[in-house]
Amino acid sequence: MGFEFWMFLSLVYVSHFHFHGLSLAEKAPYYSFVHEAAMAPEVSFYDYIIIGGGTAGCPLAATLSESANVLVLERGGSPYENPSKPDKGNFFPNLLDVSPSSYAQEFTSEDGVYNARARVLGGGSVINAGFYSRAEPEFLKQTGLNEALVNYSYQWVEKKIAFEPSMLQWQSALRDGLLEAGVLPNNGFTFDHIYGTKIGGTIFDGDDHRHTAADLLEYANPYRIKVYLHATVEKIIFETKVFSRTRAQGVVFEDELGKKHWALLTKDYKSEVILSAGALGSPQLLMLSGIGPSQQLKKFGIKVVMDQPLVGQGLVDNPLNFLLVPSPSPVELSLVSFVGITRFGSYIEACSGISFTPSWSRSVAKALAAILNQTEQSSTKLFQEGILNPESLLDTRIRGGIIFEKVKDPISSGYLELRNMNPRDNPKVTFNYFQAPEDLMKCVHGVKIAIDAVYSKSFSNFRYEILSAKALLELIVNLPLNQRPRHLTSAFSLEKFCMDTVMTIWHYHGGCRLGKVVDRDYKVLGVEALRIVDGSTFTSSPGTNPQATVMMLGR
């Protein structure tokens, strides 16, 4: 039941993440090089082997294919395979889908917070909120990337998949409410990270079709790239010689039928294995391959190639907390279109008009009825209206919206450990939300700003006067958002509210941090021919939403 509600909130956060599919055969000229892993030869050779065809892996592969032979191994399927599956009417069923072919693999952290990990060509860009915004200048300086090359790479991505969103009534009213609440100035539309309130980019076009990192493979040389789907990498193969550094030689991967394949590097001195499996997958695969904390590896009988205690450490998830605000006025179905970038370290974003399952409509109605001393039938009328779209699998939608705040650069960090030796299973993850008091204060301040925006003059047409700020907090406290215990004072104390109702915004990062596990060129320290290019190398989440920077990094 709790997981279903987390899924509902995923819809709440991403509701609009309208997965309008365009079939690979119809739209993408690169269909010829995308195959099922079962079609792979038993042994093959490539200049570059990329593990993970996700948000970083796709632009990386397209770039390398300009001058080298590239293999991409993606553990999931294609977002283009079934043209109707990614459509917006199927968004909620896709999130609830726990079958082996689903786009998202759910997990629950040891902190008791529901989460998900992408498994599809295009990675998180297939299942995220679609918001597109560049990194802050401080992040780029910290990573030491060349500014001119960074800007060129962003533009390379934006030319293919980034758009300006429409700002309709609800989103515009809330944006103006944030300005009233002091999140100034109004920066209009921009991809850049600027303090104040701005309209950001989106990966949804004017027809509400989603464009993903997989679309960047249109840039690839189709004669120099091969992409295998449902290819689960079991481990990286290393060559160890006396008096020389350990060197990556290739990988072992398994297709969907359980058959093993070996992909090996050519003898070209530039040849590399590149991990782009994400903040969970990359440290997990390093450990399964023998690079990681030796005690943990020995526990599972894994041969230690290199003792590296920092693999899996410094794993961070940006906490999210939110308000559900019923509206007396009709609202549009909207995705995240703008963001409030505060100077104290909190981001404010929102969505509206998302769909509820009938069971969760009842859950919200029951909580509202208790707060307002009404019948459930009466409280239901406050926030729900029917859906006339016959293609939708859900029959109701919220008349209102979700306003959430994300903590920027949390100090609290956790770690990742192997659960078993099966690369298909998620590892054990601990994020230690709000372990640092500074993170908690950012959340408290951010929730206060969100409340001020809700009770602003600009937003007055989209809130009920009978619902006080305390009532909105109490509504959230009474919903099973996670597996964490509730304090009796959660609706009275914003500190307790933040701790008790914390969720994920799916921006977790770290585990193979820059300067700890990889060097400035993203090469794994102490090993030849092995590099990591993804969010696991980040010391902080770039910008308000990281996907733009992850794609830029791949380029």
TrEMBL record:
Annotated TM spans: none
Gene3D superfamilies: 3.30.410.40, FAD/NAD(P)-binding domain
Superkingdom of source: Eukaryota
Cofactor: FAD
Signal peptide: 1-25
GO MF annotation list: flavin adenine dinucleotide binding; oxidoreductase activity, acting on CH-OH group of donors
SUPFAM superfamilies reported in the protein's UniProt record: FAD-linked reductases, C-terminal domain (SSF54373), FAD/NAD(P)-binding domain (SSF51905)
Alphabetical keyword list: Disulfide bond, FAD, Flavoprotein, Signal
One Pfam family in the UniProt entry: GMC_oxred_C
InterPro entries assigned to the protein according to its UniProt record, in alphabetical order: FAD/NAD-bd_sf, GMC_Oxidoreductase-Related, GMC_OxRdtase, GMC_OxRdtase_N, GMC_OxRtase_C
Positions of the Glucose-methanol-choline oxidoreductase N-terminal domain: 278-292
Paired cysteines (S-S): C443-C498
The keyword Signal is annotated on this UniProt entry: yes
Binding site for FAD: E74, R75, V120, V233, W506, H507, G535, P546, Q547
Similarity comment text for this entry: Belongs to the GMC oxidoreductase family.
Protein name according to UniProt: Glucose-methanol-choline oxidoreductase N-terminal domain-containing protein
Organism whose genome encodes this protein: Gossypium tomentosum (Hawaiian cotton)
